C-alpha cells in the first residue's frame, strides 16, 4: 500500500498541528503530512512544490478562500474540504470549485483517514450535512449564489443515494439498502459531484474536452 | 429551475408593509442592475427585459430614459443581514467574493447593446433621422451616465470600500466635460461659435436651476452616506467579536472534541458550546419558528440531557401546524429512545419536505447504530413506541415505521402531510 502525501491548508496553526498529530499517530504507513500552508498564496506554492496526493483545504482562507486555491492550483490535485463553517454557501461553493469532498472539522480521525483514502482513490466524500445541502441546492430550496439555473437534474437513483447519505448511512449501508454494489454507490456519488461542479454548459464542454469526449 | 430558483432565492422579499418591492441586486449587476432587478421582480427571464429596453429605445429613446429613471428610482438591494461569522470572513477576504455578473450576462448585455446601437446607427445613416444630433446626444448621455454612476457608486461604496478622492474628482470632471462638449457641439452645429457665449450664460442659469432641483436629493445622499458609515462601523465591531470567537473558542472546541481523554463529559460540553456558537456565527437568523428550527432545538435539548450527539440534517422547511407538531413530538420520542436505550454513540436525524402530486409531505428519519430491539417483542404494557411514536403519527394522518435489527441498530421513519398554503415558508 502506497503512502498518501497530504498537505494541510488552514489559517489556524493550532488546527494544523492537531490534524498533523492525529494523522501521524493514527495514519502512519497510510498517510504522511508533507507540508502545511496558511493562506491562498502559500497553499498554491506548496501544492506546486510538493505535489501532494490530497490537500486538506479550509474554506475560509486569507487571500480569497478555499475555492481560490482550487482555481489557481489547477485540476491535477485532489482536494478534500475540511471546514468549521457549515454555511451552505461556503460548503457548496468549495465543492463547486472542484473539491472532491467535504467534511466538518469535528470529524473523528479514523473517519478523516477514511475520507482521505476515498478521495485519493477518485471517489467523492459526502458528509450527511453536505448531502442535505446538495439535495436542497438541486431542489432550489436554498439560495446558493454559485448554483445557477442550468444545474443538471439528479436522477431518481442519485437522489435516493443522496437521501440515504443524508440520513447518516455509510456507503456500504447505502449499497445494502438499495441492493447495489458499493462501487455503484461511489459512481452515483461521483456523478452527483460532477453535476454540481459542471452546472453551466461552458464548464461541461470544457470537462468533456479535457477527457477527449468531443 | 427557472421558475423555482428566483422564488427561493429571494423573489419573495417583502417590506414591512407587505408590498413586494423591486430592487437592483447588489451582486449581479452588469450596468446598474436595473434589468436583473426588474426581471426578478416581474419573474421574467432577464434576456426579455434587456431586449425590451433596447427595443423601447428605438421609440424616441424611451427605453434609455426608462432605464435611467429606474436606475434612479429603484433602490439598491439592502444587504441581507448576514450572520457575523460569514460577514467577517467576507470582509477579511477569507471567502471568495459573491457571484458578480456571470460572464454570460456580460456578453449577452454587450451583444444586445451592440445590436441596438447598430440598428440605431443604421437608422441615423439611412433615414437621416436625428442627423447631426446622434453624436452629441450620445456624448451627453455618456456624460450623464458617468456622473450618475458615480453617485450610485458613492452609496454602493459605503458598504464595500471607501470613496476614493482623486478618482471621484476625475470622474466628476470627465463627466462634466462630456456634458459640456456635447452641449457646445449641439449649439455650434446649428448656429456657429457665436452661440457659445449664449450657451455659457444659459449653462449658468441651468446650473442654478439644476441645483435647486437636485440639491435636496444630493444632500439626502450625503446624509445617507453618513448613516451607512456609522452602520458599517457598528457591524464591523460586531464582526470583529465574531472573528475572535471563531479563531479561539470554535477552533479549540473542535480540538477538544477530538482529543478528549474523558470523552463523554468533555465532548458533550464541547458540542453544546459549539452548537451555540455555530448558530450565532453561521446564522439561523430566522427566529420565526419553523419545523427545521424546532427540530434543531429538540436535538440540542436531547443532546444536553442525554449526552449523545444528535446530528440534524434538513432539506426544505415548513411552518408548523398540528400535524407537524405531532410529528415533532413523535420525532422527539424517537430521538430520546435512541439516546437513552440504544447505546449508540450518535443519533442521525434527517428531515425532508418531499414534493408530491397531491400535496407535500414531511419525512423524518431517526437513526442510530445501537443495539436495536425487536419491535414485535416489546411488551404490550410498554407504550413508548406504540403510543408516543406510531399512534401519535397515525392520529394526525401520518405514518410511522420502526425498523430495528441487532447488528444495524434502529431506524424510525415518520411521514406527515404538510398542509397546503404555507409554500411561503418553504
UniProtKB/TrEMBL annotation, chain A:
Residues 147-212 form the HTH luxR-type domain. SMART domains: HTH_LUXR, REC. InterPro entries: CheY-like_superfamily (IPR011006), NreC/VraR/RcsB-like_REC (IPR058245), Sig_transdc_resp-reg_C-effctor (IPR016032), Sig_transdc_resp-reg_receiver (IPR001789), Tscrpt_reg_LuxR_C (IPR000792), WalR-like (IPR039420). Pfam families: GerE, Response_reg. GO terms for biological process: phosphorelay signal transduction system; regulation of DNA-templated transcription. SUPFAM superfamilies: C-terminal effector domain of the bipartite response regulators, CheY-like. GO terms for molecular function: DNA binding. Gene3D superfamilies: 3.40.50.2300. The modification 4-aspartylphosphate is found at residue 58. It comes from the Bacteria. Residues 5-120 form the Response regulatory domain. Keywords: DNA-binding, Phosphoprotein. This is DNA-binding NarL/FixJ family response regulator.
TrEMBL record, chain B:
The chain crosses the membrane at residues 47-74, 106-127, 133-151, 172-193, 199-222. SUPFAM superfamilies: ATPase domain of HSP90 chaperone/DNA topoisomerase II/histidine kinase. GO terms for biological process: phosphorelay signal transduction system. The lineage of its organism: Bacteria, Bacillati, Actinomycetota, Actinomycetes, Propionibacteriales. It comes from Aeromicrobium tamlense. GO terms for molecular function: kinase activity. This is Phage shock protein PspC (Stress-responsive transcriptional regulator)/anti-sigma regulatory factor (Ser/Thr protein kinase). Residues 328-419 form the Histidine kinase/HSP90-like ATPase domain. Pfam families: HATPase_c (PF02518), PspC (PF04024). Residues 394-426 are annotated as: Disordered. Residues 20-76 form the Phage shock protein PspC N-terminal domain. Keywords: Kinase, Membrane, Transferase, Transmembrane, Transmembrane helix, Two-component regulatory system. InterPro entries: HATPase_C_sf, HATPase_dom, Phageshock_PspC_N, Sensor_HK_TwoCompSys.
Amino acid at each position: 500500500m502506497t503512502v498518501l502525501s497530504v498537505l494541510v491548508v488552514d489559517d489556524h496553526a493550532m488546527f494544523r498541528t492537531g490534524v498533523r498529530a492525529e494523522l501521524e499517530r493514527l495514519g502512519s504507513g497510510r498517510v504522511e503530512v508533507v507540508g502545511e500552508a496558511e493562506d491562498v498564496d502559500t497553499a498554491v506554492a506548496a501544492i506546486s512544490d510538493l505535489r501532494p496526493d490530497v490537500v486538506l483545504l479550509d474554506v475560509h482562507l486569507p487571500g480569497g478562500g478555499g475555492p481560490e486555491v482550487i482555481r489557481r492550483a489547477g485540476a491535477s490535485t485532489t482536494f478534500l474540504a475540511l471546514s468549521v463553517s457549515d454555511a451552505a454557501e461556503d460548503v457548496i461553493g468549495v465543492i463547486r470549485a472542484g473539491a472532491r469532498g467535504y467534511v466538518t472539522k469535528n470529524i473523528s480521525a479514523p473517519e478523516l483517514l477514511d475520507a482521505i483514502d476515498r478521495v485519493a482513490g477518485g471517489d467523492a466524500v459526502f458528509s450527511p450535512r453536505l448531502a442535505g445541502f446538495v439535495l436542497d441546492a438541486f431542489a432550489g430550496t436554498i439560495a446558493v449564489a454559485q448554483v445557477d439555473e442550468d444545474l443538471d437534474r439528479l436522477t431518481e437513483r442519485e437522489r435516493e443515494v443522496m437521501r440515504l447519505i443524508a440520513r447518516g448511512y455509510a456507503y456500504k449501508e447505502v449499497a445494502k439498502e438499495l441492493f447495489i454494489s458499493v462501487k455503484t454507490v461511489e459512481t452515483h456519488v461521483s456523478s452527483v459531484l460532477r453535476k454540481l461542479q459542471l452546472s453551466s454548459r461552458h464548464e461541461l464542454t470544457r470537462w468533456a474536452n479535457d477527457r477527449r469526449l468531443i | 429551475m427557472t421558475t423555482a430558483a428566483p422564488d427561493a432565492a429571494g423573489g419573495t422579499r417583502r417590506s414591512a408593509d407587505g408590498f413586494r418591492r423591486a430592487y437592483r441586486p447588489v451582486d449581479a449587476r452588469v450596468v446598474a442592475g436595473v434589468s436583473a432587478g426588474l426581471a426578478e421582480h416581474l419573474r421574467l427571464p432577464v434576456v426579455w427585459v434587456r431586449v425590451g429596453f433596447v427595443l423601447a429605445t428605438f421609440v424616441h429613446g424611451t427605453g434609455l430614459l426608462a432605464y435611467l429613471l429606474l436606475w434612479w428610482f429603484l433602490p439598491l438591494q439592502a444587504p441581507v443581514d448576514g450572520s457575523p461569522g460569514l460577514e467577517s470572513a467576507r470582509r477579511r477576504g477569507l471567502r471568495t467574493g459573491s457571484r458578480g455578473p456571470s460572464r454570460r450576462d456580460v456578453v449577452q448585455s454587450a451583444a444586445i447593446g451592440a445590436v441596438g446601437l447598430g440598428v440605431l446607427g443604421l437608422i441615423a445613416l439611412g433615414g437621416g433621422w436625428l442627423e447631426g444630433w446622434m453624436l452629441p446626444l450620445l456624448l451627453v448621455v455618456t456624460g450623464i451616465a458617468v456622473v450618475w454612476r458615480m453617485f450610485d457608486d458613492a452609496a454602493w461604496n459605503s458598504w464595500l470600500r471607501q470613496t476614493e478622492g482623486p478618482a471621484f474628482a476625475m470622474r466628476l470632471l470627465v463627466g462634466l466635460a462630456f456634458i459640456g462638449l456635447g452641449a457646445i457641439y449641439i449649439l455650434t452645429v446649428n448656429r456657429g461659435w457665436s452661440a457659445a457665449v449664449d450657451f455659457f450664460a444659459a449653462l449658468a442659469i441651468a446650473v442654478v436651476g439644476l441645483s435647486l432641483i437636485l440639491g435636496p436629493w444630493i444632500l439626502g445622499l450625503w446624509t445617507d452616506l453618513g448613516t451607512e458609515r456609522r452602520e458599517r462601523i457598528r457591524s464591523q465591531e460586531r464582526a470583529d467579536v465574531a472573528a475572535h470567537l471563531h479563531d479561539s473558542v470554535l477552533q479549540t472546541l473542535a480540538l477538544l472534541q477530538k482529543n478528549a481523554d474523558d470523552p463523554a463529559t468533555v465532548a458533550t460540553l464541547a458540542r453544546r458550546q459549539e452548537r451555540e456558537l455555530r448558530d450565532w456565527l453561521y446564522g439561523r437568523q430566522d427566529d420565526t419558528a419553523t419545523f427545521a428550527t424546532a427540530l434543531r432545538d429538540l436535538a440540542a435539548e436531547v443532546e444536553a440531557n442525554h449526552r449523545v450527539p444528535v446530528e440534524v440534517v434538513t432539506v426544505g422547511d415548513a411552518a408548523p401546524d398540528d400535524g407537524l407538531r405531532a410529528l415533532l413530538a413523535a420525532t422527539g420520542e424517537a430521538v430520546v429512545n435512541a439516546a437513552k436505550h440504544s447505546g449508540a454513540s450518535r443519533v442521525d436525524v434527517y428531515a425532508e419536505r418531499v414534493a408530491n402530486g397531491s400535496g407535500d409531505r414531511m419525512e423524518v428519519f431517526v437513526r442510530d447504530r445501537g443495539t436495536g430491539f425487536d419491535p414485535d417483542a416489546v411488551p404490550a404494557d410498554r407504550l413508548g413506541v406504540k403510543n408516543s411514536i406510531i399512534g401519535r403519527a397515525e392520529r394526525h394522518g401520518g405514518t410511522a415505521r420502526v425498523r430495528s435489527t441487532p447488528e444495524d441498530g434502529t431506524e424510525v421513519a415518520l411521514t406527515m402531510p404538510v398542509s397546503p398554503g404555507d409554500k411561503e415558508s418553504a
